[in-house]
Target: Probable glucose-6-phosphate isomerase
Amino acid sequence: MHVDIGAALGEVAEPGVDEDELDALDERVATAHETIAAGRENGDFGYAALNLPEETDPSVIREAVEPVTDAEYVVTVGIGGSALGAKTVTAALADRPDRHVILDNVDPEHIERTLAALPLEDTAINVVSKSGTTAETLANFLVVRETYEDAGVDWTELTVVTTGESGPLAQLVEEHDLPRLPVPDGVPGRFAALSSVGLVPAAILDLDIEGLLSGAGAAADDLGPSLYDSPAYAYGAVCYALEERGAGVNAVMPYAERLELFAEWFAQLWAESLGKDGRGQTPARALGATDQHSQLQLYRAGPRDKMVTVVRPRERADVPVPETDHDSLSYLSGADLGQLLDAEYDATVASLAQAGRPAVEIELERLDAEGLGELLFAMEAATILVGELADIETFTQPAVEWGKRAARGLLSGEETEETKTVAERPSYRID
Ligand SMILES: O=P(O)(O)OC[C@H]1O[C@](O)(CO)[C@@H](O)[C@@H]1O
Model:
């Protein structure tokens, strides 16, 4: 994996990072790296996530899912970090990503329609919750369980659970003697893709989870005291510097359909880790080349409040564009779709630079298990670095708790501070 920051430098972009500022940043990266390395060494909360490539044992995951590896489909019941990593991995690596169905919302129509379309007897159930208490996950699991029971399908034979040792989900595991995989200690959900939290569906679909972990391990080896030698830190440091200079939005635009969900996974990682103390870049999800035809106008001619992160694999499938005798289409003849997509990528980066808008390029040799592992790990390390440079608490998400308490209170009918505030919330209806 390599990172190209050329289109984010000060002589090209506004906001931009001047080369002499990079040296000053690099000194701070060296200090931050020391903290990160010490945190990894001690297995400290959050930093421990960067030890997962070594500590995750794929054979343990394969053993736990062995009873369900002949399932045609797998349905994941989880939300946030307990779903995004898993769906990113199968979307990127599976030949048939449709075999992995995700229930990471509680929309009744969607749940009903999704379950109705699944051959339940041939669908494994992957339930994931670090806390074991998340309302959406537990509600969906109860609905899934009842749906299987109503269909006369023994869900206990098809279920694998990843959760902690306590909580209602752990109790269900005990009650029904379900196979349980642990959540890694000291790792926030959004940083847990490289563990059983993110790898169970990939193992059930027999994807290369070993390659994924070794790719992540290679990225871990790249971490060092200088941004000039570590693509992950270079990405993080430049994002931090651009945010400091007004780029409050980070539009993540992979040029590969198989990486569309990567942008969704990144959005949680970036927002929930760095959205603190009144700061934090807003991650915007886009897809190249599709969103050139929807968002690029804004990225190139809108407010100078954003940066664009483009991602591409260099190796692509070969789908030639058929010859045609239309002169106006002669420029397409002989090309293949991959060449067209890469031309679009290069043109978009150049068009942003030409308009003085900052962009950072992330390139993988190829989008295989190793490449994806490297990318996921590098983005986690970049996030942790930004947290160090911004001096914020990267690994918690206190701001999400109020809403959870309010929703729980509304459902239980309990009158709480939160439910009172909900009842009194501002309203100015226009019908
Ligand atoms: O894995 P759990 O505990 O069900 O939490 C799911 C998600 O909810 C959050 O806690 C936010 O509400 C995320 O940080 C987490 O990834």
In short: Residues 276 and 392 are 7 Å apart (CA to CA). The two ends are 53 Å apart (CA to CA). The first strand starts at residue 2 and ends at 4. Residues 79-82, 129-131, 134, 137, 189-190, 272, 397, 400 surround 6-O-phosphono-beta-D-fructofuranose (CB under 6 Å).
